[in-house]
Give the backbone structure.
Amino acid sequence: MEESRIILSEKEMPTVWYNVLADLPRPLDPPLHPATMQPVKLEDLEPIFPKSLIEQEVSTSRYIDIPGEVLDIYRLWRPTPLVRARKLEAFLKTPARIYYKYEGTSPAGSHKPNTAVAQAYYNKKDGTKRLTTETGAGQWGSALAMACQFFGLECTVYMVRVSYEQKPYRRVLMHTWGAEVYPSPSDRTKAGRDILAKDPQSLGSLGIAISEAIEDAVTTPHSKYSLGSVLNHVLLHQTVIGEEAKLQLEKAGEKYPDIVVGCVGGGSNFGGMVLPFMRDKLKGEKTFRAIAVEPTACSSLLRGRYEYDYGDVAKNTPLLKMHTLGHDFIPPAIHAGGLRYHGMAPIVSLLYALGLVEAQAYKQNEVFEAAVTFARTEGLVVAPETAHAVKAVIEEAKKCTMSGEEKVIVFNCSGHGFLDLGAYELYLTQKLPDVNHNG
Ligand SMILES: *Cc1c(COP(=O)(O)O)cnc(C)c1O
């Protein structure tokens, strides 16, 4: 009997993170200081981030040990299962073999605790007492709230207003884990007040919420800021996903995947899944297609430019060389709140520019249609963000139905959608507006 759920024991859990910076064909362009436009000095970042994370951000060591305290918490839900989606395969009549790595088993319901726990650990170690952050759909805020609770840190979350209103239960989850939550734009910061003065009805955006969280961190003693995606150290922490998946595919008797898929907001779950495979591709040992899936409403790879841009609306962050729709771009209020970010991880942006990663974009209704198909075959109700990956997988598997090719398709199932049922209800009862990035 072939297995459907490929499980690793706790002993098989990776004890190092993989740092792709050691293997990139060319170095990433350095972040620029927003005032001088010169490469930032590491000490310039110290008001925002703790020293150990700044060091990780620029490290070129190929492997970085996962601290024991972090591994102890990872063990609450890791290793996560890799599941063969046999019922979906049967439904699509595809000869492809589809596997999903299920990150929804974490207490917060997504991959985000993989980095939240690591970031809270390093902040605690370096003397931080309080972390501030932004959140879109609430996935990141809830992951960080939980991680702060584990390490005795206070946590303040600026939540994009449209999600604050659409997703009240994520707010309750953050409160349950002890965080303070404010809808953004708020009147607590100059950045928030400036936006509200221009547009009192502002729906908010991740770019605005980041400005507020950074301003709060740099103006409050013992506080630092934490980002849930985009940065090198965040993708680093997420590589546990791909490292586990590689072991699991071997256990399943697969030689190598033909296609690896993930949805992309800032690029962290995609990077975490794909980078350990990319290591083999960069060495010239393996080939596969890496597909990053975005919403048409906020398509930073396909529609954005590859250039230096700020990470936030108030231009407080260093500039990163990345694919971007512009720091003042406010995406339409699609339900995949976690994909409403104007920029893309510099690592993913460079791999895309080098042709090592492909991008696809889909609209809300076709994405929810795919999610419903997945729920009716595999049972899982995935997050609206994750549903973008599901849509791309179904399309690739259908091509195999036509061609008869037995491709191995693996995707990162980044989270469950139990707190997104309002969006499912809208889709099931009245369909959703289909918006592209021009609104
Ligand atoms: C936040 C989130 C994403 C998007 O963020 P990335 O950094 O691109 O991974 C995707 N899926 C889920 C479930 C999320 O919570």
